[in-house]
Amino acid sequence: MALMRDKVVVITGGSRGIGLAAARLFAAQGASLALCARGEEKLREAARMLGETYAVPVLPHAADILDTASVQAFVHAVASRYGHIDALVNNAGASSQREADGVNWPVNAVDAVSQPLPPGRFEAISDAEWRAALEQKLLGMARVVRAALPALRAAQGASIVNVTSIKGRQPPPRVVTSGVAWAAAMNLSKALSLELAQDAIRVNVVSVGGILTPQMEAGRARWAPGKTLEEFLAPRVANIPLKRLGSMDEVAQAIFFLASPLSSYITGQCLAVDGGGLRSI
Ligand SMILES: NC(=O)c1ccc[n+]([C@@H]2O[C@H](COP(=O)([O-])OP(=O)(O)OC[C@H]3O[C@@H](n4cnc5c(N)ncnc54)[C@H](OP(=O)(O)O)[C@@H]3O)[C@@H](O)[C@H]2O)c1
């Protein structure tokens, strides 16, 4: 018996990367899906592939988590089609790195303070940059949960999984905006797990370390065209105990576990998928 049959799963940012990998797992277990992303063409392509491969209903709906009306329209479309939501995966977001002095120099939670760091120091971070990080990582998530709550309450025991970064638990040694915004998103997740327990809604977090996605290759091509992908990632991999980046499927498995009935007595938890990069338990 498929574990997610008759379950409605909503994934923001489901058109590629981690969100699409998770959508595959849910579809393989019989879930009915609703996916959003800003780019409509890629979203429809993903929905078509999932529907054809797994023979499950898939609703693609272009939406921007930074725009309240857009999020409300997405959730309205989901509720009209399915009536309720059993699992909401808040995954949408851009993993862009900060550009400082014309150089894009990724800063990671696993970076050592002794290694070369990017030139952009704290005092160079503008209010606009702070606001953008909070919009992207905290308010986007809050907006989607707020809009989805009536449909989540209409399910018999729903689950929310918020995808964040281990930067929210272990700040990188420089360029702090995204770590602070992720920390706020995790604090919100814990608070929601307390508030929504009375509605039988569980709320958990998957905090992600370095994951190999097509975006990494795009970053290498743009910022280090003279290097191989292995050379580009070497400084980062050096500080990861498992000595490699993770795969999108490895993150998707954690999302699936926390969204599914397999974790029915788990709420308010954060599961790091990071190859051991986080230095605490
Ligand atoms: N990959 C990593 O190493 C890593 C590490 C830490 C945290 N994360 C987080 O994990 C999540 C997934 O990462 P990923 O690597 O799979 O990213 P990705 O490959 O860039 O995919 C992001 C997805 O989100 C959508 N999206 C982006 N901004 C959106 C917006 N404003 N509204 C609606 N949809 C939006 C994208 O589609 P459109 O562009 O068409 O909208 C796409 O479907 C992100 O929140 C990211 O910050 C990733």
Automatic annotation (TrEMBL):
Transmembrane segments: none annotated. InterPro entries: NAD(P)-bd_dom_sf (IPR036291), SDR (IPR050259), SDR_fam (IPR002347). PANTHER family: 3-OXOACYL-(ACYL-CARRIER-PROTEIN) REDUCTASE (PTHR42879), NADPH-DEPENDENT REDUCTASE BACG (PTHR42879:SF6). Belongs to the short-chain dehydrogenases/reductases (SDR) family. This is Short-chain dehydrogenase.
